[in-house]
Amino acid sequence: MRRLVAILSALALIVPLTVSSVAAAPAVGRQSRVIANIVMAPYGTTDAVGRATADIHAPANSADVPGDYSFDGNATNDLKHARGVVQHAYFWLWNPGAPNEANFAFIEGVQCLYWASRDPYCTDASWAFIDYRDPKIPDVQVSCWWDGGVRPADWSGTWNSCDSGFTPTAHQDWYEVVKGSLVVRLAP
Question: Is residue 158 part of a domain?
């Protein structure tokens, strides 16, 4: 009888801990997510500049790190590496019902750029990943940066922060996926 009471007491302590830790874990399989392993070229060309990888998800809570981004330039690219840490991730359906309908991910964070010809530079950064539903349209990755390296706070969380019509200090670099896989999955 004492053994049964001891086992039941132990279970009473273990089961609530297990259930609470399972409930707190993010359901990554049901979250919006970007997974990229791509060779990219300036928009409209096939002249590859390097490879980008990303694994980014919509965070379950403020302590959940949404993911990371990295870029490795090819031999002729002055930008040799870029490493980014994601702060915010936003996901939505872009141009619903249009021929160019796409799953869209807008990512904000910081990145450090490592050049062959100059010192490393760290800055605020944003990235957009556009996964067109029509397989004939090349998927796109957009890098966004600002004069002085600082994202304007009043436009955080919107594409307007990357649009020079709204934010005069903004610049965009558009790249097509020429090889590899870019998937933007929207949560159900």
Answer: yes
Judge whether 15 lies within some domain: no
- Per-residue pLDDT tens digits for 24-52: 333 444 689 999 999 999 999 999 999 99
Domain assignment of residue 89, given as a range:
28-185
Q: Number of H helices and number of E strands within the chain?
A: 1, 8
CA angle 27, 29, 34 (to 5 degrees): 115
The answer as to whether 150 is a domain residue is yes
The domain tally of the chain equals 1
Beta strands in 117-168 (DSSP E): 121-132, 140-146
Dist CA 99 CA 87 (whole Å): 31
Distance CA 163, CA 78 (A): 25
User: pTM of the prediction?
Assistant: 0.80
The phi and psi torsions of 84 (rounded to 5 degrees) equal: -120, 150
Nearest to 85 by CA among 50, 59, 104, 61: 59
The whole-angstrom separation of Cα 122 and Cα 24 is 33
Q: pLDDT per residue over 93-116, tens digit each? A: 999 999 999 999 999 999 999 999
